[in-house]
Amino acid sequence: MKSLGNLYRRRLAPGTVTSPELARNLAELSHEIRREITLLIDRRGRVLSVLVADAKAAELPVTRRGDERLSGFHLLHTHPKGGGLSKNDLSTLFLNRLDAVAAIEVRPDGLPGNVQLAHLTPPGTVGEEEDWRIYPPQSPAQMEDFDLAGQVRALEEEIARASRVREAAPDRERALLVQIDQGEMDAEDRLAELSELARTAGAEVVYKELVSRKHLKAGTLVGAGKLEELTSRAYHLDAQTLMFGQELGAAQAREIEAITGLKVIDRTQLILDIFALHAQGAESRLQVELAQLRYMKPRLLGAGARLSRIGASGGSAAGGAIGTRGPGETKLELDRRRINDRLAFLEAQLGEVAVRREERRKNRNRNDVPVVSIVGYTNAGKSTLLNAFTHATDEPRRVLAENKLFATLRPTSRQGYLEGIGPVIFTDTVGFIRDLPVDLTRAFRATLEEIGDADLLLHVVDAAAPDADARYGAVRRILDDLDLGEMPEVVALNKADRADPEALDRERLRMGGVAVSAASGQGLPWLRSVLADTLQRQAVQEAEATDLARQERVRIKAELERPTSNLRLGAGQYPHD
Q1: Under DSSP, is residue 387 helix (H, G, I), strand (E, B) or coil?
Q2: How far is CA 235 from each of CA 155, 160, 166, 529, 550, rounded to the nearest angstrom?
Q3: Which residue, among 434, 366, 427, has the nearest Cα to 399 in the 3D structure?
Q4: What average pLDDT does the segment 457-476 reach?
């Protein structure tokens, strides 16, 4: 223990890896205790820590470094059983962005053998060892002459040059996408959808991968090895963000960020960002903020009593008011209280919006105008179809229609006309998506329940999508959850001009839909005719149901008014009420 403690007194020349004296001292100690010894050395040559363990277990001090700098430390450790740099050594070098890592081989007689050195390579390097460069083994005397300081300066200049190129490029986050396949049939479609979500949010997808995992890891989902591989790709592709197709828990997100050093986003947060980006009206903004706060609340991270607002120093002037003994109200508690207050305010505001929406619905019902709600998967072409039905080609009647997910976040109603029916109200709704986040469902429930006041659902399906069946099923499940699955429905197979003819015929037979193209106008007259016929049949059925109900009321009234004097009662019997 004393000999190990004396290692802290060792000093190296600035910018050197090791010296023959230090290498011999380390080899002898490592041979005696038969364990690896690891030193953490800064750029001034000072030994900051001595560890009886391998390089992977080294604890590095927390430093504030930018993307253009390395950590400022290098690791020097021994290998009592001989051999060069291990996989753990190189992983520690890369994940912690060390200046270098060096391994001293310990010979059977306890003397130092060769020293092997590795350092990082600049971003974008292509080669057999693209993450690092490993030098041939050298003796401790030869390694003393290695100019580590010059090599670190050159490497940081290359990193800074790559960073300047990134800053000069368009302001878009470069992202890596990961979708975990646990045996689902639509795993590839989910990865493609995640890529489309990232594009809609404004990110540039530089890499995407479908990772097969039968069982998910508790903390990292995909395992430390896969995260290390993703970190390597992010380093060389100059990516800053890692997006997962699964919803991450707060602890999982923090652990993955700690391992990779990347910004970690899950699918729910990505959808919330898109909603916040596209929210236009006051109601949409309120609903999005409500969903974001509900998502954020369980993911708040406190820092314990050191963030206390009230001190606990027993009444000293520096610590707080007289008589305080506990840590007081922590920063985490303050944040939670603020979020709770904001949630209550937003829910009250949305309650007022719901009252105004209810008044508008009552006015439409009094006018006895049929209402057709246009529902469907996001980016299926609902807004384009609404514009085509209402001939809304110019502002302000024209509804925003873009080739993006969730371009429409609030219900928009426009009056159209159907032959044989007359004026009809068409309502465009927010697009659905498979596995809609719970926070969004709760925030938009009042908006989605407005669909129930419609006389007919026009279900728009993207016929050109390879997973049209899965998208149709996802929308049907959401409608069933809202108790709207029994409403009359007409299916429009949109984008028929871009769909495969055989697949289009198959979907038409399976769903009983009408093939249309909202952009070109193909099939729209036939769809109008189908909508009019469906509304007419529904009106006839409602009239028949109303007539039957009226007849039943008349019959019941007649039964109640029938005189009881003609009834022949037996002994002990009384007429019924």
Answers
A1: helix
A2: 14, 13, 13, 57, 75
A3: 427
A4: 89
Half-sphere exposure of 17 (CA within 13 A, CB side): 30
Identity (one letter) of the amino acid at 182? Answer: Q
Give the Cα-Cα-Cα angle 428, 434, 435 (nearest 5 degrees).
120
Q: Which helix (H) or strand (E) holds 494?
A: strand 489-494
The 10 Å Cβ neighbour count of residue 434 is: 18
Q: Which helix (H) or strand (E) holds 347?
A: helix 331-367
Cβ-contact 381, 494 below 8 angstroms: yes
Cβ neighbours, 10 Å, residue 511 = 18
479: Cβ–Cβ under 8 A, 6 or more apart, which residues? 375, 451, 457, 485, 487
Specify the length of the chain in residues: 577
Contacts of 171 (CB under 8 A, 6+ apart): none
Q: State how beta strands 112-120 and 100-106 pair.
A: antiparallel
- Sheet-wide strand order for 100-106: 47-51, 38-42, 73-79, 100-106, 112-120, 132-134
Let me know if 530 is exposed, middle or buried by CB neighbors in 10 A (0-12, 13-18, 19+).
middle
Query: Residue 122: what pLDDT?
Result: 80
- Nearest one of 74, 88, 99, 96 to 156, comparing CA atoms: 99
CA 319, CA 322: separation in Å to the nearest integer?
9
The reported pLDDT for the residue numbered 442 is: 67
Using alpha carbons, select from 489, 437, 397, 156 the residue that is nearest to residue 287.
437
pLDDT of 140: 93
Q: Are 113 and 106 contacting, i.e. CB atoms less than 8 angstroms apart?
A: yes
| pTM for this prediction | 0.66
Q: Report d(CA 171, CA 470) in Å as an integer.
A: 35
CB atoms closer than 10 angstroms to residue 208: 17
For 188, half-sphere exposure in the C-beta direction (CA atoms, 13 angstrom radius) is 4
23-73 pLDDT, tens digit each: 999 999 999 999 999 999 999 999 999 999 877 776 776 655 555 688 899
Residue 197 near residue 263 (C-beta atoms within 8 A): no
Residue-wise DSSP of 354-382: HHHHHHHHHHHHHHT--EEEEEEBTTSSH
Q: Which letter does DSSP use for residue 497 in this model? A: G
CA distances from 300 to 343, 399, 403 (A): 15, 38, 35
In angstroms, the CA 122 to CA 161 distance is: 10
8 A C-beta contact, residue 446 and residue 358: no
Check residue 312 and give its pLDDT. Answer: 43
**Nearest residue to 466 via CA among 186, 169, 198:** 186
CA atoms within 13 A on the CB side of 306: 1
pLDDT tens digits, residue range 553-573? 777 877 777 765 554 545 555
Q: Please tell me the distance from the alpha carbon of residue 103 to that of residue 82, in angstroms, as a whole number.
A: 9
Q: Give the burial string for 557-567 (b: 16+ CB within 10 Å, else e).
A: eeeeeeeeeee
